[in-house]
Task: inverse folding
């Protein structure tokens, strides 16, 4: 009996030691990494979600802006982070599916070095121009670019990002010559077009909506297949003479590839609940964004499709890093 008691005590002690060595996830604050400057679309989404995600997980979620290289710096940081679930990336189309086609020596492999957690939001970009620019419609914008090739400047929040790709796709479809100018995030890009530093900018509804209402920029067209909820009076590129044109922006959550499956599942469950929270849905809708929670497998399949699609555009447009 004593031997049995001793054996049971030893087993319980070992189990307790293991539990103490690996406390339930999460047991400390999390860091949500964003690859663009404060004030841009990705940053706004991150901050809307972070507080509610923290409530779901019972831990604080801090937003960390690591800007530069169109989000690649932040993505590489997360790819190299400890695979324990405490560092997650709110990434975008550029760093997650375009960069491998654009950067010869990219330090990370997004489809291999990162584990999908869930899609966050999907939305179009909107082509806006500085008020002094003569074009009032997309047709007039295209005509201006054709009449004065190489003089129209169109900006984006970074090389290889959704805004840049949307502009390159329009250049291909419309047969125009416009100069691309890359900024480090939505905030700087919006300030540039508002100040007349560039003629046009492919913005997110989150960063452009209020400026459009205030008349500080003029909206010409949105890049989705249907009109945006925030800008119902702004036509799409597709309905403005380019049927089938679509350049959808999206933000998704990923973690380092070797993160335990149970941790990925826990993060997915918490993020899906957060993205379905009525308060979060209302806040995102107000920004013109559509919450689009998914399973990790669904996000993986989506990222592969985007990787293939935009790889073709990068090659055809001859996009090169600066």
Result:
């Amino acid at each position: 009996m004593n031997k049995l008691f001793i054996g049971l005590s030893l087993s319980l002690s070992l189990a307790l030691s293991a539990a103490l060595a690996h406390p339930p996830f999460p047991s400390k604050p999390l860091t949500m990494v964003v690859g663009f400057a404060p004030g841009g679309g990705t940053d706004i989404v991150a901050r809307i979600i972070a507080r509610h995600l923290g409530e779901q997980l019972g831990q604080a979620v801090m937003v960390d802006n690591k800007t530069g290289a169109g989000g690649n710096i932040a993505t590489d940081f997360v790819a190299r982070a400890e695979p324990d679930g405490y560092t997650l990336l709110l990434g975008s189309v550029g760093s997650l599916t375009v960069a491998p086609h654009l950067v010869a020596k990219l330090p990370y492999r997004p489809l291999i070095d990162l584990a999908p957690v869930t899609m966050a939001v999907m939305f179009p970009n909107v082509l806006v121009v500085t008020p002094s620019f003569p074009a009032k419609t997309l047709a007039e914008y295209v005509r201006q670019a054709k009449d004065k090739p190489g003089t129209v400047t169109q900006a984006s929040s970074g090389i290889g990002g959704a805004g840049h790709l949307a502009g390159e796709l329009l250049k291909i479809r419309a047969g125009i010559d416009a100069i691309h100018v890359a900024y480090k995030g939505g905030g700087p890009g919006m300030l540039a077009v508002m100040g007349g530093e560039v003629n046009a900018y492919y913005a997110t509804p989150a960063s452009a909506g209020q400026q459009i209402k205030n008349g500080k920029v003029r909206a010409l067209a949105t890049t989705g297949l249907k009109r945006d909820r925030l800008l119902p009076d702004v036509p799409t590129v597709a309905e403005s003479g380019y049927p089938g044109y679509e350049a959808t922006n999206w933000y998704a959550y990923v973690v380092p590839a070797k993160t335990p499956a149970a941790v990925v599942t826990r993060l997915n469950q918490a993020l899906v609940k957060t993205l379905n929270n009525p308060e979060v849905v209302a806040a995102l809708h107000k920004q013109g964004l559509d919450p689009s929670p998914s399973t990790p497998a669904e996000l993986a399949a989506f990222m592969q499709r985007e990787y293939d699609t935009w790889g073709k555009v990068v090659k055809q447009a001859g996009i090169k890093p600066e």
In short: The longest helix spans residues 296-317.
